[in-house]
Amino acid sequence: MKLKTIIAICATFLMLFASVAMAAYQKVADNTVPAYRNAELTQRTGNERVDKGDLVTVFEERDNAYFVRYPVKNGTKDRWVPKNIFNSAPRPAPTPTNNIVTIGDGWYRIQPMHDLRRSMDALGAYIGNGNNVHMWTTIDCDQQKFYLQNRGNGYFSLQSGYGSRLFVTADGGRDGANLYTSSWNGGNGQLFALVNAGNGAYHVMSKFGNNLNFDCVGGGKADGNNIGLWTKGDAGWHQWKFTRVNGPSSQNNTQTSFQQYQDTAKQTVPAYTNAGLSQRNGNERVDAGDRVTVLNKQGDAFYVDYPAGNSRKQRWVHKSIFEDAPAPSGKLLYPLKGRSISYSSSRTTNGQRCDYVAPSGTALYAPADGTVKFMQSYAVNYGKLASYANQILFTSSDNKYTVRCAHLNSFNGVSLKYSQSLKYPCSSSTYSCSTITLATRNVKRGELLGYTGMTGNASGPHLHIEVKENGRAVAPIDVFATW
């Protein structure tokens, strides 16, 4: 056998061995790139692509390409992509070694050492993927309880105390990556390790590596201050106290033999303080789309636990809460079909709460018949997305409503002029921004418009919504009906 042939065979075996031995790891796409069926990047299927902001799993590396798994509308796909999907070479997560501390499985309250009056909190106790994780004043509630489960090699997961099998998840291995709750996938974004920081405190290190740890963004102390990942420091907002607590109230409630269960409200109904449904406290209500826990039943009334702003309440409601009802006349459909209307932060625009729970890649639909402008806001001197970035401006056919949805990942049927965002924060107050209209078209109620993301001035995946009724800013939750 010729020497060249032997060398070629050996090289092939080495390449195959390297592919098998490589440990899969996760990273967020820095750029939108086409997806290919082969490592030579010559064979495509239609217009398949991986979008900027997608969390991908890297399985294999070749000279010019990565083999990745990425999210699509109804699941995932495995394809080859060019290496410029990332701005820097990904690094597989290391196994933690120095000063690693293992504590027992169980329920914990997690508090930042620079402000022990507050605790890590699953925003609004929303039961669903994509719920933001932030700080809030410490209270005895399920959304501030997290189940620590050791997973081996020094790593553990954190399961939210409110919701079925939802876990704290980092949306990437970079400074500024957001924390949210998501179904279990076992990736690096859901595994953490404790590093001893002294004085009973810990650094919470992500398995993404790169010395990334839990961080109170900006060292803030206010309710609603975001929690993300940042390179480890010695400040109190990089250190955390873990205190054992009782499990969620749904596990501890022994006052009734009623079999508790969860359901979604189909109608907006008033909330009462008595089972006779005659005593109210102000204008309290449970909104259509709210995920509620039914704790008891008496006659035509249910005793439910439901989201109320950034906390929970327990009140009596009429049984019609779970009965089908048509969308109220004149109302718009919530653009995120099939999702409950849930805030992702306490930010306001024009005096109204504006940011809503939406994992990257969630489909966005027309709320009614009307006209849509597909637009991009960008920093003039940089040619990169900033401020609201990819956005749509919907006007109803009767000109009564306008709806702006911002920070989108992509549009349906409209190509993007700008694909990269400036580093967060990149608001119009920081950069000279301009907005262009890429296309305008008439749409029908329920027509697909695009997909959510975190482009422009966004620290994490969500949907920014602004609604005006007859030119006056109104609360989106007051005009939207769920599907």
What does this structure look like?
With 483 residues, the protein is mostly beta strands. It folds into four domains: 63 residues, SH3 type barrels; 145 residues, Trefoil (Trefoil (Acidic Fibroblast Growth Factor, subunit A)), CATH 2.80.10.50; 69 residues, SH3 Domains (SH3 type barrels, Roll); 150 residues, Glucose Permease (Domain IIA) (Distorted Sandwich). The protein is 6% helix and 43% strand.
State the shape.
globular
Share of helical residues: under 10%
What's the CATH superfamily of the largest domain, by name?
Glucose Permease (Domain IIA)
Structural class: mainly beta
Integer-rounded radius of gyration: 24 Å
Keywords, please?
mainly beta; SH3 type barrels; Trefoil (Acidic Fibroblast Growth Factor, subunit A); 4 domains; 7-stranded antiparallel β-sheet; 4-stranded antiparallel β-sheet
Quick overview of this protein structure:
The chain is mainly β and 483 residues long. It folds into four domains: 23-85, SH3 type barrels (Roll); 100-244, Trefoil (Acidic Fibroblast Growth Factor, subunit A); 254-322, SH3 type barrels; 332-481, Glucose Permease (Domain IIA), CATH 2.70.70.10. The protein has three helices and 39 strands.
Fold topology:
Layout: H1 3-21, E1 25-28, E2 33-34, E3 49-50, E4 55-61, E5 65-72, E6 75-82, E7 100-101, E8 106-112, E9 118-122, E10 131-137, E11 146-152, E12 155-160, E13 166-170, E14 179-183, E15 192-198, E16 201-206, E17 212-216, E18 227-231, E19 240-244, H2 249-252, E20 261-264, E21 269-270, E22 285-286, E23 291-298, E24 301-308, E25 311-318, E26 332-333, E27 348-349, E28 352-353, E29 355-356, E30 363-365, E31 370-379, E32 384-396, E33 401-406, E34 408-411, E35 433-443, E36 448-452, E37 463-469, E38 472-474, H3 476-479, E39 480-481
Parallel strand pairs: 26-39
Antiparallel strand pairs: 1-4, 2-3, 4-5, 5-6, 7-15, 8-11, 8-19, 9-10, 10-14, 11-12, 13-14, 15-16, 17-18, 20-23, 21-22, 23-24, 24-25, 27-28, 29-37, 30-36, 31-32, 31-35, 32-33, 33-37, 34-36, 37-38
